Amino acid sequence: MEELLELKSITKIIQNESDMNNTILDHVDLTINKGDFITVLGGNGAGKSTLFNSITGSQSVTSGQIDFKEKNVTTWSEEKRARFMGRVFQDPKMGTAPRMTVEENLLLALKRGKKRPFLPRKLKEHRKYFEELCASIGNGLEDHLDTPTGHLSGGQRQSLSLLMTTLTEPDLLLLDEHTAALDPKTSKRLMALTNQMIQEKELTCLMITHRMEDALTYGNRLILMENGKVKLDLGEEEKNKLTLEDLFVLFERE
Amino acid sequence: MFISAIAQGFLWAILGIGIFTTYRILNFPDLTVEGSFPLGSAVAVTAIVSGIHPFVATLLAILAGMAAGLVTGLLYTKGKVPVILSGILVMSGLHSVILFVMQRPNLSLLNYPKLYDLFTGLPNYFDVIFIGLLALTLVISGLLFFFYTSKGQAYIATGDNESMARSIGIKTDNMKILGLVFANGVIALSGALIAQDNGYADVNGGIGIIVIGLASIIIAEVIFKEVTLGERLLTIVIGSVLYQLLLLAVIQLGFDTTYIRLFSSSILALFLMSPQLRKGLKLTGFSGRRE
């Protein structure tokens, strides 16, 4: 198995108002291999989001090292890491530029990690491609190519975010409870679409979820976080044996 | 008087467009304006007085404004000083820079050449209108070209949703610096043109001008809703001219000019409050904002 990302003893400590040290991540060691589709479970305050922020670089870590393809990227900025990782946020408002149209957003995402020169953007040349792309997900987004994304529904915005993130097939896809803000039906459809994309493009993915069913149904590895530590790390075989009851028991124990 | 107000409106519109590129596109208020505007005036007038051609003098003013924007940008992005404070620091510091440049609080252009002299054949004020329109055409077409480049789209995205922009690899700090440098260059240009129209530069020439710039933007937005980016830039020109005409009307009505600033601020405040006022008067039905 090819190693993609390795977290070595990642610790994140923040100071709260009363100058007390609050350990959010506590010496987390985690190796993500190419082709992994890991579902991440954990209660509130377990450190899931901070783990994501440390991986993307939107938050710096207090100590520890992050290696990507055996290169130390601990001090790399978020913009630089964006070349090889993409992220879908929980809040549908977070993933797109609201005043820009659907196709403008897609064009922005197409340039992930590339130079953005002082040259005409050539939107028209991509129109057909974007239309097909939007049509492929089947929720009518292709009729809204000229609509500012701020006017779209939450479900449409999230599927657009997913398209934008997977467009350039990043080495690592990070999904931060990306279906949590949607109604059950939309959420189910988006999750199925997500899974389909991951399988088709053979993406490596880390997905935070609060839906235990999803954590069991999807992915080939499952980790459970608790108090800033990885409590449990199950491979494909163990995960397949796991039942919903087992998961509830694990959660109860917390 | 009427033509003069329109001419003034064109020159102030350049300021409005400069402010628009940061205030509305990047979504933050840049207070450097009140320093880079008189800096533009001071540099242009000083250069002309020391024998430099007015055209070159105006270019020098633009460069000076860009430098001021660069300082604010670096304080904000690299120094992590909040943007309003960065602007205030630079604005305040520029006061000394302007005094250093002019060596006195104000400098007259009486009997010196001006950019407007290039078109002496035109009737009164039309030379100003001509130069104003020329400068506006250059600035607006340049901006529109920029906005629809790959870089420009990254710039707009930075103001629209910064965390998303960063997550797809846009260097948002560089975009903010770019915006501040460009905007303050444009603002200094308007300072240089207005100083040449007035015939002098004054170290205090920047006080309250942010209100004039914002007024043209807000008037444009209140009157013309739901327009494209290009149309928005043009409506700012209209907004600026309307604002100058409004001020002219007030002066013609015999209003004491001592209170002109208070009046300006009140007009702007009214426009800014207009959505709220309409709601209060239950007029939303006929001219409410589309959602």
UniProtKB/TrEMBL annotation, chain A:
Residues 5-252 form the ABC transporter domain. The keyword Nucleotide-binding applies. InterPro entries: AAA+_ATPase, ABC_transporter-like_ATP-bd, ABC_transporter_ATP-bind, P-loop_NTPase. Signal peptide: none annotated. Keywords: ATP-binding, Cell membrane, Membrane, Nucleotide-binding, Transport. It comes from Alkalibacterium gilvum. It is a peripheral membrane protein. It is found in: Cell membrane. GO terms for cellular component: plasma membrane. GO terms for molecular function: ATP binding; ATP hydrolysis activity. This is Putative ABC transport system ATP-binding protein. PROSITE patterns: ABC_TRANSPORTER_2. Its main location: membrane.
TrEMBL record, chain B:
It is a multi-pass membrane protein. The chain crosses the membrane at residues 6-26, 55-76, 83-102, 122-148, 177-195, 207-224, 233-253. One of its GO terms (molecular function) is transmembrane transporter activity. CDD domains: TM_PBP1_branched-chain-AA_like. InterPro entries: ABC_transp_permease. PANTHER family: ABC TRANSPORTER PERMEASE PROTEIN YPHD-RELATED-RELATED, BRANCHED-CHAIN AMINO ACID TRANSPORT SYSTEM, PERMEASE PROTEIN. This is Putative ABC transport system permease protein. It comes from Alkalibacterium gilvum.
